[in-house]
Design brief:
The chain has a single domain, classed as Jelly Rolls (Sandwich), CATH 2.60.120. The protein is built from two helices and 17 strands. With about 260 residues, it is mostly beta strands. Strands 1, 2, 4, 5, 7, 13, 14, 15 and 17 form a nine-stranded antiparallel β-sheet that branches. Strands 3, 6, 8, 9, 10, 11, 12 and 16 form an eight-stranded antiparallel β-sheet that branches. The longest helix is centred in the middle third of the chain and has 5 residues.
């Protein structure tokens, strides 16, 4: 179980990744406006920016599992490619290929398109091989196809935030965003998630994560949701990769991914 357990355009292009089984097909219009990234609120320099609006923007991204990844002028749309009745087999992770240092703020725009489901964001992700930290893409690591245990009970070290949690009745009845540490399922922090259900949403929502060593702060539209410290023994607290995960049958739209240094 994951973390506590219409878009039609003549310019639409479908990105084919490793496990993509076909095009996303016809998409219905979605009432959302493309947003301009907010001005930097930190003193450090921009380390990375990706609009996530074209196939070229997603070059090098790595898909684990099977998903429909569609590029459009409004952003990257993610949807499971297998029926949710398959459980964990229908879920997936899409990794950005870059490695980012510590002391950073990660930002992106999020629009919920269809629910139920759940979003998870991995960051500071490293692989663990023979007691040493390696790239999360190291071929010596165990194979991963989007199943949750492959990220939380295996050889991946990462922090993760689950938000827009709508998969199960208890999550839909009481909306929380949750910070956990992997490997394991260690709860580090949680707070009320202000994003409403799809029919009441006024997207896009600007998501921000500040990571300073073991401290993590999570914001939605500049509202602080929680601040938590990773006191897990032997936990990795430094650099690593970032990745988007969805729990089927959620559909989400992402744009303007930005990473900014928090150092002067």
């Amino acid at each position: 179980m994951d973390a506590d357990p219409k878009l039609s355009s003549p310019a639409r292009r479908t990105l084919l990744l490793t496990s993509l089984l076909g095009s996303a097909g016809a998409l219905a219009p979605l009432a959302v406006q493309a947003a301009t990234p907010a001005a930097s609120k930190s003193v450090g320099k921009r380390l990375y920016f990706n609009p996530l609006r074209s196939t070229a923007d997603l070059a090098g991204f790595r898909l684990e599992g099977s998903a429909q990844v569609t590029a459009s002028p409004l952003g990257m749309r993610l949807k499971n490619d297998k029926p949710p009745e398959l459980g964990q087999e229908s879920n997936f992770v899409l990794w950005c290929p870059e490695v980012f240092p510590d002391q950073i703020e990660i930002r992106w725009n999020f629009t919920p398109v269809a629910e139920p489901g759940l979003c998870v964001f991995f960051f500071a992700a490293q692989g663990l091989f023979e007691g040493k930290e390696v790239s999360v893409f190291d071929p010596r690591l165990k194979p991963r196809q989007g199943l949750y245990d492959q990220y939380t009970k295996s050889d991946v070290s990462a922090l993760q935030i689950a938000y827009f949690r709508r998969r199960y009745p208890s999550e839909r009845a009481f909306h929380l965003a949750i910070l956990r540490r992997a490997p394991g399922f260690t709860l580090l922090a949680q707070g009320a998630d202000p994003i409403p259900n799809v029919e009441d949403a006024t997207p896009p929502y600007r998501i921000r994560i500040q990571k300073r060593a073991r401290n993590v702060r999570f914001f939605i539209n500049d509202l602080l949701i929680f601040s938590g410290d990773d006191e897990t023994p032997h936990a990795t607290a430094g650099s690593g990769c970032i990745g988007f995960r969805q729990m089927a049958p959620l559909e989400g739209l992402y744009s303007d991914l930005e990473v900014v240094s928090l150092l002067a």
